[in-house]
Each structure stands twice: as structure tokens, then as C-alpha cells.
């Protein structure tokens, strides 16, 4: 059994079996990193001068080339990730749709936020000059592929698509979990770059350990911005490296989240079963490997409900909504049963599965925590995915001969009083686990939110009767997240203009940005102003005639008209 | 003679005399910092909920309260800064105009970039949810007052105005050079806050050493963003502190610049005299104490010109344009004469004047540098402002009994070959000094630009005949700056929607932002999305009816219409 870290050759590992996947891919050395960045810097001079329609052509060609990879991409990706052909095909669809969304955005062109203030030569005491500005590409961007989105947030994913759309060359550091997938998609992108007659330096994929190759890229003076999706530790390490550069650059790190889901009393009493069943699907979707996985459920007990001690609730409770009495207990019971019914799943790699099992064991043995499914409280410390031991369905990992990265869903509950005093319980468990906190009221919810820091999302399940009393809580919650969801689930991030996928630290490095949706392009462009610029020297977008036909702000007003 | 650093009481010092100015202002201690931030955090809950028109009322009231300070403000500020009543009155005008500009911006309201994607319930394979987003205030902002703009970039300057406009409480760390001015303006702002019925925690001014009070504010977990205008050393120190926080925050540091000005051959041959005279005014304006002061002149010698050795040129050259022959030499000569004619000036404080004189002395004694005016080459090391020694007009500092912070303009020249090998010469000399680099062609200009890093501005002086051959250079230069100016001068930053005042590091901490103009508000607001939000819980801006009447992006198109 080989490892894919700290070696000269990077191999994928089949997470179902632990088998090494050929071929291997050479890890870059320092000279290779230098050469790639030099190529990107050189290509930038030509690529930054391309028009929006030119870049749209490239993005659409990339989408076509990825589609042309056909079943090979599905097969290779499934072998490396165990995500399954259906999910992978769906993710491929999202990936090419994202590319085409950015193609449409830059073809239309208004995203450059062009602004024109025309001259007032006779203004007193000083003449007003003519000033025009627009957003321009910043320079070479490094993108780190994500383990959990081998297509949609890796080589040709949202970070790459938005950086290319803005006019920047991209160098992708392939994730070590799916080097074959990365190489295939990289080949498709490079074919598209060649097809469009652009210099090869516009795009590159590089393999190697993040601690070596990734660090070298982030520290390289030719690199101007970084996109990252992954763990908090990895993201923070890159942020620190970038901040320590002679010329610091932004790292747009999206670092996961526990995504609190707040179940309000009327909702839990009247449709707790449906919420529990939907929630179980969201927690277990893709073996829980989503940044928006709901890892914390703040359940507000209905007034007048007699709260049953949670540890007295048996798994597999009744399907009927319980009404007010014991509503939270019934909700937890139904959630446990539905999660348990999902059965085991194979995680992306052994390291992720091991970490999941360690965290599950730590939760299970923590003071005041009740385990409803998924962990053996007797042997919490021994829950490692590499130890097939024939144990039953209530352990979190390690069943049978396919146990290399196999895990089970896990559900815990705890009181609000215990939760707010347990830093461990506010940590993300990456995988199909969640924790219900039993809250008495809005004050308990606020106390819990105060200890968890920033998140990508927060979700409310509530009825009109709930929101009459909890509207203020919405205003509190929106300060801690990038997206507030009502009566839905946070998994499934719509790719559109209105999406915010980001949030206060530690959810992301910059709460001022989104990594999903058209707004993601703003991470990779900077404003440039031109004062009294001779018309032949102006870029197209701020020219009087508005040859690109874009919406601009002219002397303070939105307009698509030429400047008179 | 007292100092205003590292004491419990901060006093202003008259830079003309060195006399201490009463009253003193108590430096904050750690408890005071904690209390101020706690007040700001509490006030944020109320202030963030105010409407755009509410905030417009506050900003306009602040402007009125500042105007109501009347002559006292001018008198106090002039005593502390020596900028003179005319300049201070003008800067007060800019300050209140900025406040009113942001009032207009948030009253109109479209700056929140509201976006609406309506639901498609029957979309396959998954329904599309309703998603709406807008920019929301980020939380308490700390602003560091600038030495060189005691009004327009201090207590109620651009950083404060934009942060307040976005809906954030502001705590200003007053600059130690003008504590009395800061206290007066702070009083005006707090009066406006009270007048508008807002909690006092919306705004505070605090005094004390930056290394103590400033650091404590930047490190405080309740603070969410920082605005700074000042030295590179000071800005970088704050950036490093903010990056090392448990939850890092952005420091929008604007750190000055050498602002290259490129004089192209046809222009220098045919109107070199006019350019030299305008340039001398820009270099010496406000004793050179502007971030946009042109500190580097890249003069391209006309083809066929016989370049006279620059050290053979006497000061006070002929007024006539020289034509092609010796055009650069004549330009330098005229520039020297005009700068010399400006005479001495009093800088903002003794520390700034001392640093200026040290830098002038280092330039004067550097290899290959010719001094045209402003430094005694025989005694370059002795040019300290505190040593009145009766020396003549060609020394950079220290003339007569008013010599406490008095300095003289300084002009140097050097070859491109020497410049690109002298890191010293690429450093900013804050004050009325500039350096002419004799360039043979565009290649020389590009070589010089490559060694100086990012700048706030670059300026071209050129005619149509020049730009026919130098258009590519414009595309290179725009990559290194936030603003490109043609046939003008970089000092005098227009406050408008199209302005970019910022640039690649080290000009500013984030080249993605501007600190001047309406775009400055984007530094202090972050996107928040609402998914399937019950209409009563939505903020006003993304509601169907568009009650604020703003321009939004609805299903991909700009619109001011209600959502049907």
C-alpha cells in the first residue's frame, strides 16, 4: 500500500480498496514551479488584452472539451473518489454550466463595473478632469483543487472559471486525492487554450504535496491571488504564507463550516418528521462531504413541551408528528432512524475517513453528549476506518472488507448549557455526522451561535407563527453567515448571481467575497482609472461610444447609452 | 520641548516653532479600548438596521456640524500642521463634500448591489430556489487618521465617511500630529450622532501611540476592518497584526507611492518648459506631502537629441522650449529653477522633516546621482531640520529661526542604468523632492518601472506623435498602478465614482480597493444571501416591490422595476 504524500510521484488511491491507481504523476520541483509561473506571467500580457467575447469562447471551448472526455472522466474520477457515476456526472454538469455561466457574464460584459465621470473644464475652483474606471485582471492566479468537488471546485471548477473569465492565467495545484481526474481535465483545458490560439501559459496543472508545491506557488512573486477550498488548517497555512510575502496577496480560502440549522418550536411540533427526514438526507448527502453540510442543529423546544430526557429516546421513533409534547425528542428520534437507514458510505480518502472517525469518537465520549447513532460509546477511541472488525451498523466506520475509507452516519445531542462550554463540539466533523443542541428559547440559540464563529450558511425551519417571535433572531444570525436559508437545507449551492458562498472567518478567509456564482469573478479583478485619457488609448468598456453595449455608471446614473 | 509619543497625554506641537500646544489629550489605556469597542459592538446592532436615508441624514449632519466649528477648526489645525488657512479651508470643503457624496450614495441606495434570482419550482433535475442578496455592513471599523490630511483623511475623512455610510460604527485613532483638530472634529461627529438619535457608540475618537492604542484596536476581536493612510512601515505593521489575529481582518492601508511620471520625447521637445513648470508645482504642493506626489520622473530623450551630461546643466535654464536637441537637459534645468523658486516650506512635524532631510542627503550622496537643487553635496549627512545653521537656499532643510520643521525642495537626476541598480532611489521621499531618470526609450522606462513595484498613480506627458509609438507602454504601466493620468499631474485626487486611489503593493494593502470616491464604501460591506426568505423577513432592498427604488440585477438584467 503506497502513500500519495511527500513522494516524487503522485498516485491516486481507490478509497474503496486502498489500491494504488496508475499512472502516477510527477510532483513538481522548484524549477518547474518557477517555469510555470514565468509562463503564466508571460501569457498574462496577451491574455489580459483579450475581449470578453474572446474569453467567453475559451470558457465554452473548455466546457466542450470536458464533455468530450466522456465516460473516461467518470470512470477515472469514480475510481479516485468513490463518489459514484451519478454524482460525478451531475458534478460534471455543474462544472460545464459554471463555465458557460461565466462565459455569458463576460460576453455581456457589464461585470467590469465601468464608471465614467466626464470633465467639467469650467468648474470652480478647479476644473474637473475626465475620469473613467473599470475592473481589470490582476495577474496569475493559483487555484487549489478541493478534495470534495473533484470537478466543480478543482481544475476547471468555480475558482478557475472565474479567474480565467476575469482575464487571468491560472495554475492549478491538483488535489492529491484525484490526480488522474485533474490530469484529464487539465488536458481538456489546455486543448481549449490551444484551440483558441492562446499561449499555453494561460493554464497549467501541477501535482505535488501542498506543503511543498502549494507553498512555493503561493510564495512566488509572480502570483497575484489564490483560490482555495479545503480544511481550515490548510487554508490558514496558505493565508499566513501569503500575508508574510514581501508583497502580500489575497488567499480566497473557503474552509468549511458547521452550518447551524435552527428548528423553531411551531415547526418542530407540526412537521418535525418531515424536517428530520429532509435533514437526514442533507447530512448524509455525498457521505456528508460538503462545505454546507449541516453539522449543528439548534432545536428550540416548544413551550409547554415536556422535554423527555434525550437519552431515553429509542432509535426509530414513530412517524407521526408529536405535537407539542416531547417534540424535540421525537424529532431527534426520527432523525436518528433516518440517518441510520442511510447505511455506510465510502469517504474520499483514508485520511478524511480517519479524521471523521476520530472526531466521532471524541464527540461520543465528550461530557454530556448523547449518542443516538453511529458510535460505540464503549470503544470510542478505537473507531478507525482501517481496522475491519465486523462490527455492526451502529459504529461509525470500519465494516467489512471494503472498510478502507468506509464510515457510518453519526448523530449526537447535547444541552445548550453543555454545548456553550465545550469548544470541541463547535468543531466541524467533516462527514455524515451532526449534533442536536436542545435549546429552550431564542436566548439559548443566540448563546450557541456566539461560540461557533462564522459559517457559510445558517438555516431556519420555522412557520409564520415562529417568525412572529423570532424575527430578531434572523437579524442576529445574518451577521454570522454568508447565506440564510429558510425551510430548506444548506447542501445544494445554487450557482447564480445572487449566491454568497463565503462567510465570516473561519468559514472563509474573506467574508467580503463569494466563491460560487457570478460574484466570484470580483475576487480576481481590480479597479483601474484613466484620467484625461486620449480616446485611442482607452480600453473598449469605458469609451464614449460604449462599443461593448454594457451597463455603466455615467455621471452617477446607470446607463447603456453612449456618452453624448 | 516635549514629545507627543509614548506619554499618557498627547499634545500637538507647532511645526513652525516646536512649541507645545495645549490642551493635551489623555492616551487611552487597555480598559478604555475595550470599553470603546464594546460600545461600538453594541451600537452596531442598532446602526446596521438604519436605512440609507437615515445614514444620509447622519452624514449630512456631520458635515453641518464640522462647518459649524467655523474658524476655530482652521486656527487649531493650522497651529498643529502649518498647512495654512487656505489649504485647510479647502480641505474642509473636500471633507464635507465627501460626507455629502456618501450621503447621496446611500440615500439613492443602489450601491448595495442587490441581486434577485427568482424561483423556478419546476426546474429539472432540481427546483431552483428563490435567492436574493445585498451588501450589508460588516461591523465596527477602526480608522487611523493620516498626518497629511488632518481633515479629509482623518477623523471624519474618507475612511470614516465610507464606513459610516455602509452602516458600521467607527473608532478613529487620532494622529498624534493633530490631536486638537481630531478632538474638535470628533466632537462635531458625536454631536451629529446624538442629534440623529443614534447610540453614542456609533462613533469615537481615541488618542495615544499607534504602537499601543492602535495595535490594541487592530487586535481587538470586536473590530472587523481597518482603514489606514500613512507610511509603509506603519501600514505593514498593522497588516501583519491583522493577519495574525485568530480571525484575520482586512487592513485597507494606503501607504504612499512614488508616482512615476513619464515624459515622452515629442512632449519634452515641444512643451518641456510648461511640463516642468506644472510639475514643479505638483512636487512642491503642500510641501510635497501628498500620497500622489510625483517622486520619479522618467524622461525619454527625443531621438536625435544629443543628451548633454546632466551635471553640466546650470540651474535656471532658458524659458524657451529647446526642441529636440538637449530636450531632457533643458527640462531638468527648468524644473530645478522652478522648484528652487518655490522656496522653503514647513512640514507637518519634526519627524517627517527629519526623515525628508535624511532621505535627501542619502540621494545626494548616492552613486551616479546629480543634485540640481536642494542638498549640499559636501555635507549631505548634516541636513537635519533641527540644526539651524544659516545655510543658503540650496540646502534641503534648516534655514533660520523657523527651522524646526522647515525644508527645501530637492531635485536629482540619474541615468536609467544607475537607477535600476539602486534600491535606495526607488524609495519614497515624502516631501518636495523628485528624481529625474534619463531614459533612452520605452525599454528604459519599462526597466525602471519593473524595479519600483506598485504605485497609486502613473502619469504620461505625451502628444499624439508620442502615443503612436508608446501605446503598448500604457498597457504595461496600467498593470502597476490604480490610476493612469494623461498630460496632467497626480496631485489633486478627484472624489467621484470613477476614482481609484489604491494600487498594487506597496502603494496599498489591497489593490482591489479604492480609498477615495464612492467605491471606497465597498471596503466595509459584505454580501449576504437569503434563500426562500419569507417576504416579511427580507431587508427592504431585495423585496419584490423595490421600495427603495434602486437599480438591481433581477434574473441577470439590470432593473429598477418591481419583481413581477
Tell me the greatest interface.
A-B, 75 and 75 residues
Strand numbers in spatial order across the main sheet of chain A:
13-15-16-11-10-17-18
Count of discrete domains of chain A: 2
Low-confidence stretches of chain A: 1-6, 307-318, 376-402
From the coordinates shown, what is the CATH architecture of the largest domain in chain A?
Answer: 3-Layer(aba) Sandwich
SS elements, strand count of chain A: 21
Give a short synopsis of this structure.
Chain A is α/β, with parallel strands linked by helices. Chain A is 35% helix and 18% strand.
Q: Which SSEs are present, and which pair or pack?
A:
Two copies of one chain form a homodimer.
Chain A (H helix, E strand, L loop, with lengths): L8 E5 L6 E7 L3 H18 L4 H17 L2 H11 L3 H24 L6 E3 L13 E7 L3 E4 L13 H9 L3 E4 L5 H17 L7 E4 L3 H10 L5 E5 L2 H12 L7 E4 L5 E4 L1 H20 L11 E5 L26 H16 L2 E2 L3 H15 L5 E4 L32 E2 L2 E6 H4 L13 E7 L2 H11 L2 E7 L2 H14 L3 E6 L38 E7 L20 E3 L2 E3 L5
Parallel strand pairs in A: 3-20, 5-6, 5-8, 6-7, 8-9, 10-11, 10-17, 11-16, 15-16, 17-18
Antiparallel strand pairs in A: 1-2, 3-4, 4-19, 12-14, 13-15, 20-21
Helix pairs in contact in A: 2-4, 2-5, 2-6, 3-6, 4-5, 9-10, 13-14
Amino acid at each position: 500500500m503506497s502513500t500519495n504524500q511527500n513522494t516524487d510521484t503522485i498516485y491516486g488511491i481507490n478509497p474503496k480498496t486502498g489500491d494504488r491507481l496508475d499512472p502516477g504523476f510527477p510532483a513538481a520541483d522548484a524549477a518547474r514551479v518557477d517555469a510555470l509561473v514565468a509562463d503564466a506571467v508571460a501569457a498574462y500580457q496577451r491574455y489580459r488584452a483579450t475581449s470578453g467575447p474572446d474569453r467567453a469562447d475559451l470558457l465554452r471551448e473548455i466546457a466542450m472539451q470536458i464533455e468530450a472526455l466522456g465516460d473516461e472522466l467518470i470512470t477515472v474520477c469514480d475510481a479516485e473518489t468513490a463518489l459514484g457515476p451519478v454524482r460525478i456526472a451531475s458534478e460534471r454538469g455543474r462544472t460545464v454550466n459554471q463555465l458557460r455561466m461565466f462565459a455569458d457574464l463576460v460576453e455581456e460584459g457589464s461585470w467590469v463595473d465601468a464608471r465614467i465621470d466626464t470633465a467639467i473644464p469650467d468648474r470652480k475652483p478647479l476644473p474637473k478632469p475626465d475620469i473613467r474606471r473599470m475592473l481589470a485582471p490582476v495577474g496569475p492566479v493559483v487555484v487549489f483543487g478541493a478534495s470534495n468537488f473533484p470537478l466543480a471546485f478543482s481544475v476547471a471548477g468555480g475558482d478557475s472559471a472565474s479567474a480565467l473569465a476575469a482575464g487571468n492565467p491560472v495554475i492549478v495545484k491538483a488535489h492529491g486525492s484525484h490526480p488522474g481526474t485533474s490530469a484529464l481535465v487539465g488536458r481538456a483545458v489546455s486543448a481549449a487554450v490551444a484551440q483558441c490560439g492562446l499561449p499555453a501559459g494561460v493554464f497549467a496543472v501541477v501535482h505535488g504535496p501542498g506543503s511543498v508545491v502549494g507553498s512555493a506557488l503561493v510564495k512566488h512573486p509572480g502570483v497575484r491571488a489564490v483560490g482555495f477550498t479545503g480544511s481550515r488548517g490548510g487554508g490558514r497555512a496558505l493565508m499566513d504564507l501569503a500575508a508574510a510575502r514581501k508583497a502580500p496577496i489575497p488567499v480566497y480560502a473557503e474552509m468549511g463550516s458547521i452550518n447551524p440549522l435552527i428548528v423553531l418550536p411551531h415547526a418542530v411540533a407540526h412537521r418535525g418528521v418531515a424536517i428530520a427526514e429532509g435533514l437526514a438526507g442533507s447530512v448524509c448527502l455525498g457521505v456528508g462531504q460538503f462545505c454546507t453540510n449541516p453539522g449543528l442543529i439548534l432545536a428550540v423546544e416548544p413551550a409547554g413541551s415536556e422535554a423527555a430526557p434525550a437519552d431515553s429516546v429509542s432509535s426509530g421513533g414513530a412517524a407521526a408528528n408529536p405535537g407539542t409534547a416531547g417534540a424535540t425528542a421525537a424529532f431527534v428520534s426520527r432523525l436518528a432512524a433516518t440517518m441510520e437507514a442511510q447505511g455506510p458510505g465510502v469517504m474520499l480518502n483514508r485520511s478524511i475517513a480517519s479524521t471523521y472517525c476520530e472526531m466521532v469518537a471524541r464527540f461520543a465520549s465528550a461530557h454530556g453528549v448523547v449518542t443516538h447513532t453511529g458510535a460505540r460509546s464503549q470503544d470510542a477511541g478505537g473507531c478507525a476506518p482501517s481496522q475491519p472488525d465486523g462490527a455492526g451498523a451502529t459504529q461509525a466506520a470500519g465494516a467489512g472488507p471494503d472498510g478502507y475509507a468506509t464510515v457510518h452516519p453519526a448523530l449526537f445531542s447535547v444541552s445548550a448549557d453543555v454545548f456553550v462550554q465545550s469548544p470541541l463540539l463547535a468543531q466541524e466533523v467533516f462527514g455524515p455526522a451532526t449534533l442536536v443542541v436542545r435549546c429552550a428559547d431564542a436566548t439559548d440559540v443566540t448563546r450557541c451561535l456566539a461560540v461557533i464563529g462564522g459559517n457559510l450558511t445558517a438555516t431556519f425551519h420555522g412557520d409564520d407563527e415562529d417568525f412572529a417571535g423570532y424575527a430578531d433572531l434572523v437579524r442576529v444570525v445574518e451577521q454570522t453567515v454568508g447565506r440564510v436559508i429558510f425551510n430548506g437545507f444548506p447542501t445544494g449551492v445554487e450557482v447564480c448571481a445572487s449566491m454568497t458562498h463565503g462567510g465570516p472567518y473561519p468559514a472563509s478567509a474573506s467574508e467580503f467575497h463569494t466563491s460560487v456564482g457570478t460574484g466570484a469573478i470580483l475576487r480576481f479583478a481590480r479597479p483601474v482609472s484613466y484620467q484625461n485619457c486620449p480616446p485611442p488609448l482607452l480600453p473598449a468598456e469605458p469609451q464614449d461610444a460604449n462599443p461593448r453595449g454594457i451597463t455603466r455608471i455615467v455621471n452617477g446614473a446607470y446607463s447603456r447609452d453612449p456618452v453624448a
